Amino acid sequence: MIAFLIKRLYHALLVMFIISIIAFAIQDNLGDPIQQMVGQSVPESEREALREELGLNDPFLVQYLRFAGNAVQFDFGYSYTFNQPTTEVIMRHLPATLELVAASTFLIIALSVPIGVYSAIRPRAWLSRFFMGVSIIGISIPVFLTAIVLIQLFAIGVSFSPFPADTGWGAWLNGLLSTEGGMPAYGRGDPVTVFGTWDTNFASLTGLTYLVLPAVSLASIMLPLFIRLIRAEMLEVLQSEYVKFARAKGIPLRRIYFVHALKNTMLPVITVGGVQIGTLVAYTILTETVFQWPGMGLMFLNAIQRSDVPLIVTYLMIVGLIFVITNTLVDLIYGLVNPTVKLTGKPA
Amino acid sequence: MTTTNSSMASAPVASRWSRFHGSYLFYSFKRDPIAQISLLVFIALVGVAVLAPWLAPMDPYDLAQIDILASELPPFWVDGSDPAYLMGTDAQGRDLLSTILYGARVSLIIGFGAVAMQALLGVSFGLLAGYLGGRVDAFLMRMADIQLSFSTLMVAIVVGALVKAIFGSATYSDYAVPLLVLIIGLAEWPQYARTVRASVLAERSKEYVDAARVMGFSSRRIMFRHILPNTLSPIFVISTVQVANAIISEAALSFLGLGMPETHPSLGSLIKSGFDYIQSGSWWITLIPGAMLVILVLVINLLGDWLRDVLNPRLYKG
């Protein structure tokens, strides 16, 4: 186990090293910090002096080591547009993104496990077929389009009146086809500040309503994947000898499904799922753009538009770190849960 | 020797068509209405996209044909529409139907181009890794692992943003199609590389490869002439899914402003440009191209699902 742990940590460090080299190369080649610091009127000789003073003329390796040394202490310099340390800017935007991801993860787990298990237990029931059909449609809809449709339906509202409105049944059918709208779909509203710095949407009911549409959109991209995965794994487990044996022994079906089979189903789901939860961070860029949700993704896009290089670099490093941490944790949890995993980490 | 030759020549050689006709692939296709409908819709969509310059009532790239006064007209079934514009017009007064047909063309070109790019990179690296093994294998697969541990979308967004920052917006717009093909191709090659490597590893230990090696064929010949043809069916299956993914990736990049410019829109940039007008009630500018995108991706995914079930290579277990 210790060897496995060290191997994973070594791997994580290697990945962070590669990310830092990419990030540094970006910082080194994109934009001119001198240009950003001083105006047009400063003569070339002064620029050169400043460049020398900041160490921008040093060899690549020296500059990289300085960058890495600062990066380890979470010092990435100042953002051009915010005039604040980039880490502070990111920390201010981080809660919004994390809460969005947390709410979506909750939705995904709460919905995919029962639906996946049900459609594995009753693969031929019409409800299972319905879920499978919906899930392949769900995979085919890009996350920003789901978001736009949700905005149209629940924020703006739709009114269809194909049936005669003056009759009772017509008005009722029209009412079924139309939606009210009015759900908030822009920004976070007024989040409550807790623990001094953390703005949360979970503390108040109005805060939660702001969270609903973005979280549902973000969940919609992963939900079909999880349902299909859980269903496939569960189907496989239900074929195995020990389930047949448990059935022959007369153990109640419910106990077989939810205690015996579900445990082994969740193993692969943890590995795939953990990694996918990490990739939700990528999809937050799209969701946050549609809903103008003031998180890291929106901040990153704005930073790109304004060529705010230090902020771009910091975002890449921190998101890289989040990915590496989730992947390493998933590997470790998998190693703990499944003792048969090859602890040496060599491919089978 | 001569007898075997003559007997082979005189035996009725099955034509390619009859071989296909009698195959399991065709048999299961005949029995699967969803696959048939999907293929039909897919061919129809590709057809109208390819024939867009002849089918579309207007040329959306031609500024002279655009009437700004006719902007934001609704589609034909909504009050206030103009019969000249079947699907209505967008905010610039372009006929939406024509713009969608041209946009689908752009999306399909980028989708197929990006998959060709991925396949080229992924198949070469996968073959090398699987056949050579050792350090080459360890290095390439480690690279693939690292890249896959980030989502491919994330890689595409970051690379797209950097390329745009390096070249500047104007140059980026001019070369958007080849650049997007390159970006999406670079972001997704590991999928191919892993699949190909897995099947190469399975094939490599088979007797026919040993035989070829004993006969003194070069590594390159064995890789491309002997092993590659046997890895084609998993490549074929992931290609369908990858085309759908590439079209979605392109739409996502365009939606973020990192893809096709609005003067030369793909379906994604049409959705983006329409999204600015959804609050003012002009839902059709964004939702009709959106519906087109979903149908296109859906039929490709359905075809991919069917193919995977039929060919059933253990794809994601490698």
Automatic annotation (TrEMBL), chain A:
Residue ranges of every copy of the ABC transmembrane type-1 domain listed in the record: 94-334
TM spans (from-to): 9-27, 100-118, 130-156, 208-230, 265-286, 312-337
Pfam families reported in the protein's UniProt record: BPD_transp_1 (PF00528), BPD_transp_1_N (PF19300)
Key words, A-Z: Cell membrane, Membrane, Transmembrane, Transmembrane helix, Transport
Membrane topology of the entry: Multi-pass membrane protein
Protein's cellular compartments: Cell membrane
Record PROSITE patterns: ABC_TM1
UniProt keyword annotation of Membrane present: yes
Main location: membrane
Protein family membership: Belongs to the binding-protein-dependent transport system permease family.
PANTHER family (alphabetical): ABC TRANSPORTER PERMEASE PROTEIN (PTHR43163:SF2), DIPEPTIDE TRANSPORT SYSTEM PERMEASE PROTEIN DPPB-RELATED (PTHR43163)
Protein name: ABC transporter permease
Organism encoding this protein: Halomonas aquatica
UniProtKB/TrEMBL annotation, chain B:
Protein name, per record: ABC transporter permease
Pfam family membership, one: BPD_transp_1
Entry similarity comment: Belongs to the binding-protein-dependent transport system permease family.
Membrane topology recorded in Swiss-Prot or TrEMBL: Multi-pass membrane protein
TM annotation in the entry: 37-56, 106-134, 146-166, 227-248, 283-304
Main location: membrane
SUPFAM superfamilies (alphabetical): MetI-like
Keyword Repeat: no
Domain of life: Bacteria
Keywords annotated in UniProt: Cell membrane, Membrane, Transmembrane, Transmembrane helix, Transport
Organism of this sequence: Halomonas aquatica
Domain ABC transmembrane type-1: 104-304
Subcellular compartments: Cell membrane
Keyword Cell membrane applies: yes
